[in-house]
Amino acid sequence: MPSLDVSELNIVVSVLGAFTVLYGLVAVKLKGVWYLGEALPAVLVGMLLGPVSAKFLDAKRWGSAAASQQDAITLGVMRVMIGIQLVIAGYQLPAKYLRVHCKDLIICLVPIMAMMWLATSVCVLATIPKVSLLATLVIGACVTSTDPILSQAVAKGPFADKYVPRPLREIISAEAGANDGFASPFLMLAVNLLRLTENRQATLVERGRGVGDDTRDVGIALGNWVIETLIYIVLLAIVYGAVVGYCARMGVKFSLSRRWIDSESYLLFPTALGLFIVGTCGALGTSDLLACFIAGCALNWDGEFLAETERRHDEVNSCIDVILNFGGFMYVGIAIPWQEFSQPDTTGITYARLFGLSVLVLLFRRIPALLLTYKMMPAVVKNWKEAIFMGYFGPIGVGAVYYLQHTRLLFPKEQVASARERELLDAICPVVYFLVLFSILVHGLSIPILSAIYKLYNVRTITEDAVEIRRRSIYVATPPNAFKGDRDTFIVYNRFFRPLAGIASLPISRPRTRSDNVSVSTEDEVEKKRSQAVTFSRIDSGANMI
Predict the structure, then answer these.
(1) Which of 47, 112, 326, 542 has minimal CB crowding within 10 Å?
(2) Which residue in 473, 511, 508 sits closest to 491, CA to CA?
(3) CB-count burial class (<10 Å; 0-12, 13-18, 19+) for 6
(4) Distance between alpha carbon 215 and the CA centroid of its chain, in Å?
């Protein structure tokens, strides 16, 4: 007889499907009018349906329901989610972007990230009382990188189309894609020092010595850091990503020249490439995130891959972005450890201290570093206002959750960990998750507030670099910062996607009118067009008969 099967799988896919359907019905309002994006609503739904509130979704009950399985599930979800989207972010940059803006990226990845790491660590040290200096350096490294998913929303969203110059958008996107992998050196440096202080192996140093008593311990830690992190994790990931991306580009060109690859396979190619790199880099033990971004850039090194996706009117990769964001951020909402946000007797963590830490990190983690270095990047950051914008919109998100889970695997379980390691393991999870939650809420609401301020003060939208794109349906809403050209096209200003550096712009000079913003034709207009088409066909047939 038929029976109910309320399994965890059925619950998860039902909730994800229902949320995607309901969000899609008002997506234009949420993203194009209210500028909310996908992350904030998905996290809120995960929090409401998670184990603390409705108890409807709980990762601890999935699969075999093992006690420690949630850490492995979280790390796996983050790796797949971020890896695929980093390949997409890489190929959507202009051709040879890493070479053209090599100096700007080096500034973003070395001095700026170093200052962000140290500033965040100082904030943690000032607000969390019972955590050692090395532990704060580990925690600070986890949240140093800007989140690649949330940053792409800032760089490519409707608000950016209207108000953010393209050079600034491109450097925000490129920095967020690259610095997730470049956070590894800062993290592993602190981890190596902490591990050698507490759990030294006899093959490295004699037991019983401390870092402060014998400087050779520091030398061993730095040597391991250079070999294991800089060479194997970072350099190998760059080389591997470049080789895989180059081979993929050559393979796609070969198949295109012989017309062996269809549109579906071509448009799914970045997703498949991301899955392949995540799996192989995970097996090798190198940085899958950095390799994915480098491979995406190498895939579009000559600009032809992105140009072909534009010619094929690619909507596949944007749809994959959306579904990954829905699932990933809903999972973050489920996994938030609310019960760990109050530990006054062990680490000294309280809600007040976490809130104060979040405010300090928002103000001092990134903005001072950009104000000190923006004059070194005149090609992408023109003035101090753009530096503050870029500094403020450096969100903390799923990348921090990835590094949190990665860090927990580097240390022994709490039962056999030393006192300092237990302090770190007790503090790192609530601190990182609270910073992620605070960043998603604050940055998710900042764009709507900033948009309202711009409208109040009549800040003009960017009306430069116009391009013409095809209108694929009369029911397609007018893109942000665009107006209707003819019945089959839109004229779009400040569009992010630029396959080739010399892409032609349209000399648009006429002012916008109210009718330019109308996105759906009326029934009378449609009927009139149909009658004109019928009349033209009759004239053609009559001419053929004559």
Answers:
(1) 542
(2) 508
(3) exposed
(4) 40
Residues of the chain with pLDDT under 50: 200-215, 500-546
Instruction: Give dist(CA 187, CA 313) in Å, integer.
Output: 41
Backbone φ and ψ for 321, nearest 5 degrees, come out as -55, -45
Report the 10 Å Cβ neighbour count for 201.
Answer: 9
Write the pLDDT tens digit of every residue in 69-93.
888 899 999 999 999 999 999 999 9
**According to the 3-state scheme, what is the secondary structure of 269-312?**
HHHHHHHHHHHHHHHHCCCHHHHHHHHHHHHCCCCHHHHHHHHC
* Residue 147 token pair: 């989140």
End-to-end CA distance of the chain: give it in Å, rounded. 72
Is 420:135 a contact under the CB 8 Å cutoff?
yes
Question: Is residue 197 within 8 Å of 251, Cβ to Cβ?
Answer: no
Eight-class DSSP state of 463: -
- CA 455 to CA 434: how far, in whole Å? 32
> 287: which residues sit within 8 A by CB, 6+ positions away?
181, 184, 233, 234, 237, 281
Backbone angles phi, psi at 50, to 5 degrees: -75, -175
- Rounded distance between C-alpha atoms, residue 425 and residue 135, angstroms: 9
Cα separation, 520 vs 397, whole angstroms: 36
- If residue 367 lies in a helix (H) or strand (E), which one and from where to where? helix 367-373
Which of 283, 265, 272 has its CA nearest to residue 245? 272
Per-residue pLDDT of 130-178, as tens digits, reads: 899 999 999 999 999 999 888 877 888 899 999 999 999 999 999 999 9
Rounded to the nearest angstrom, the gap between the alpha carbon of residue 182 and the centroid of all alpha carbons in its chain is 14
Q: What is the pLDDT of residue 241?
A: 97
Note the pLDDT of residue 537: 42
CB of 380 within 8 A of CB of 101? yes
Strand order in the sheet with 467-470: 467-470, 489-492, 482-484
In order, the DSSP letters of 115-135 are: HHHHHHHHHHHHH-TT--HHH
- Burial (0-12, 13-18, 19+ Cβ within 10 Å), 508: middle
pLDDT given for residue 219 in this prediction? 78
> Residues 260, 312: contact at Cβ < 8 Å?
no
Rounded to whole angstroms, the Cα distance separating 382 from 374 reads 8
345 SS3 class:
coil
Residues 424, 414: Cα–Cα separation, whole Å: 10
Question: Which amino acid belongs to residue 520?
Answer: V
| Dihedrals phi, psi of 467, to nearest 5 degrees | -130, 155
81 phi and psi, to 5 degrees?
-60, -50
Question: How far apart (Å, rounded) are the C-alpha atoms in residues 480 and 162?
Answer: 7
Question: Which residue is it, tokens 């700026």?
Answer: 112
Chain centre to alpha carbon of residue 463 = 27
**What integer pLDDT is reported at residue 304 of this predicted model?**
93
Q: In the structure encoding, which two tokens stand for residue 209, read together?
A: 């010595």
Assigned token pair, 214: 């014998």
DSSP letter at 376 equals: G
